[in-house]
Automatic annotation (TrEMBL), chain A:
Residues 78-279 form the ABC transmembrane type-1 domain. This is Putative spermidine/putrescine transport system permease protein. One of its GO terms (cellular component) is plasma membrane. It is found in: Cell inner membrane. It is a multi-pass membrane protein. Keywords: Cell inner membrane, Cell membrane, Membrane, Transmembrane, Transmembrane helix, Transport. Its main location: membrane. It comes from the Bacteria. GO terms for biological process: transmembrane transport. PROSITE patterns: ABC_TM1. The chain crosses the membrane at residues 32-54, 82-105, 117-140, 160-181, 220-243, 263-282. SUPFAM superfamilies: MetI-like.
UniProtKB/TrEMBL annotation, chain B:
Residues 59-272 form the ABC transmembrane type-1 domain. It comes from the Bacteria. It is a multi-pass membrane protein. InterPro entries: MetI-like (IPR000515), MetI-like_sf (IPR035906). This is Putative spermidine/putrescine transport system permease protein. PROSITE patterns: ABC_TM1 (PS50928). Pfam families: BPD_transp_1. GO terms for cellular component: plasma membrane. It is found in: Cell membrane. Keywords: Cell membrane, Membrane, Transmembrane, Transmembrane helix, Transport. It comes from Blastococcus mobilis.
Length: 292, 282
């Protein structure tokens, strides 16, 4: 309180310009140091990895990258991961779009609960979740053997297309999907739009398909992409349940083909980044179009 | 009433695929299988076993690594976020950093481990540069150790901090800074009395998130060090793959339950801190 009084009293006599400028310039140097040091920290591993994959005894070659599509097991693992990702996106959206819309428009009482549940996977260690899932799956041979339920459990664990991974990945994707969709619903004036549609006689399913989904296009795109990237990179759950996906394949080949594993890693990071950049640019273009 | 049914699929799904596995974990950690008769009984043997010996070391190792990397990541991430937001004509820089952060923070795992192996692993590019070309050596640093893991963890924790803290930084109104400047406050006074108190709750929250993320990390550690470093996640994977020893499966469940309980305690502490700071701010 006294400090405040002093500065108020002093403000009349002192020209405010000088101290403000000095402070700003000092923090500027600090800012560039942070950017330089952290920039180095983030760029060196990427640059070194690229160099690691293209150096040969006699110069430089892109051969490692050309080898990727033909590498043993790559196609199966990659397409399997893509299929799992696609299914995860579909289930996550079918589950979450109606829930988010309902919670925002009709059931605000449930908001805190839904929010809390969707945020749980963010802090819950995936390895703990997968140990629990494994225990549940072990019931099939232990308790339900010979029943249709056991058959269903075994069908979920088909190595060619492990549905159990899809179902668990939906849980892992919940925080991303919920937040992307919730931001979209809050950004658009969805209440007015749905009320208008309802007044004109549209049923709720029809409102979802013809009003909500078009409005949420970018949010849905955002949520889908985040889920896709999450599934393509998920390692813990796949390896503990013993399925081969894209990331577990990288680890498996790393022992014998280190250059290849690094090349695939760098490529997957860069491709994900470029796709995310494109989506964010799309987001902005749509955003500016709507405000103008 | 019918509207509530619309939210039912969500709650059912979460109950079956999120809550049920955790509940099963909590129950089966207290089961034991007799090595001779294979009879199942209630027992606290697994839970008691994980509080000593290598398991205790693994918990301590995981906690140390997560606390240190979370605090370092929070400080560096906050600095980076401030630097990006203040950069002049920083829109492109900002977009690049934000999207790159999104990739690294959430989807890095395995690729990061290999990028670092190629950089500063045994036959890494920087390793070769430092030892062969410059003759300096790595000064005792090894990527396949706690310090090495910390270096890699920061590579996804700093971006996570940037992502989570930028909305809070953007909520700091420029008018507050202008007001305090006009009243003659120094930069330090502004942060001490205005910016700091407003930012404290989100910064604490983000640090907790970083802690949880580091504590749960398994992919990077598995690809980098196998099981040479004491970490709970690695011990859990070990216990599950060791089919030979009867009861190791139950020990895996007990270890996983321990992780859930620890994270739960951290969250309770976080909620308590948030309530305190809110009361203090009000």
């Amino acid at each position: 309180m006294t400090a405040l009084a002093e500065s108020v009293a002093g403000a009349g006599g002192v020209a405010p310009e000088t101290p403000v400028r000095r402070g700003r310039r000092g923090s500027g140097a600090w800012r560039y140091a942070v950017l330089a040091v952290l920039g180095l920290y983030f760029l060196v591993p990427i640059a070194a990895s690229v160099w690691f994959t293209i150096r040969e005894r006699d110069g430089v070659s892109l051969e490692t990258y050309a080898e990727i599509p033909g590498a043993e097991g790559f196609t199966e693992a990659f397409t399997r991961s893509l299929a799992i990702a696609g299914l995860t996106v579909v289930i996550a959206l079918v589950l979450m779009v109606p829930t988010v819309v309902l919670v925002n428009l009709r059931l605000p009482r449930l908001r805190t609960t839904v929010e809390l549940l969707t945020l749980m996977p963010l802090v819950l260690p995936p390895i703990a979740l997968v140990v629990g899932v494994r225990s549940v799956l072990a019931w099939a041979p232990d308790y339900f053997f010979g029943t249709p339920l056991a058959e269903a459990f075994f069908a979920l664990q088909e190595p060619a297309l492990p549905w159990i991974l899809v179902l668990v990945y939906v849980v892992l994707a919940l925080p991303f999907v919920y937040r992307a969709l919730d931001a979209g619903v809050r950004g658009a004036d969805l209440r007015t739009l749905t009320e208008a549609a309802r007044n004109l006689g549209a049923s709720w399913p029809r409102v979802l398909v013809s009003v909500v989904l078009p409005v949420l296009r970018t949010s849905v795109l955002n949520a889908s992409f985040l889920t896709l990237a999450l599934v393509m990179g998920e390692y813990t759950i796949a390896v503990i349940l013993g399925f081969e996906t894209f990331p577990t394949w990288i680890v498996r080949i790393s022992g014998s083909q280190s250059q290849l594993s690094v090349a695939v890693s760098v490529l997957s990071l860069v491709v994900t980044w470029v796709l995310l950049l494109m989506i964010s640019a799309l987001d902005r273009r749509r955003g500016t179009k709507e405000t103008s | 009433m019918l509207v509530v049914l619309g939210a039912l699929p969500f709650f059912l799904y979460v109950a079956v695929f999120l809550l049920l596995p955790i509940a099963v974990l909590a129950v089966e950690a207290f089961r034991a299988t007799d090595p001779v008769t294979f009879e199942e009984t209630w027992s606290t043997a697994s839970v008691a076993a994980i509080t000593e010996g290598p398991y205790r070391r693994a918990y301590v190792g995981s906690l140390q690594l997560s606390v240190i990397t979370a605090v370092l990541g929070a400080v560096l991430g906050l600095a980076l976020a401030v630097a990006i937001l203040r950069a002049r004509r920083g829109r492109l820089l900002r977009r690049l950093v934000l999207t790159a952060s999104g990739v690294l923070a959430n989807f890095g795992g395995i690729p990061l481990a290999f990028a670092f192996i190629a950089t500063i692993g045994t036959s890494g590019v920087v390793t070769a540069l430092l030892t062969d070309t410059l003759g300096l050596g790595l000064g005792g640093f090894s990527l396949y150790s706690m310090a090495g893991l910390a270096l890699v963890y920061l590579y996804f924790l700093i971006p996570l901090m940037v992502l989570t803290i930028i909305p809070a930084l953007e909520a700091l109104r420029p008018q507050w800074r202008e007001a305090s400047d006009n009243l003659g406050a120094s930069g330090w006074q502004y942060w001490r009395h205005v910016g700091g108190p407003v930012l404290a709750p989100p910064v604490v929250g983000a640090t907790m998130l970083l802690f949880a993320s580091a504590f749960a990390a398994y992919a990077t550690a598995d690809a980098l060090v196998g099981s040479t470093v004491p970490l709970v996640t690695l011990q859990i994977a070990n216990a599950l793959s060791g089919d030979v020893v009867v009861g190791s499966e139950n020990r895996g469940k007990a270890l996983a339950l321990g992780m859930v309980v620890l994270i739960g305690l951290v969250m309770v502490f976080y909620a308590w801190v948030q309530r305190r700071t809110q009361r203090w701010l009000a």
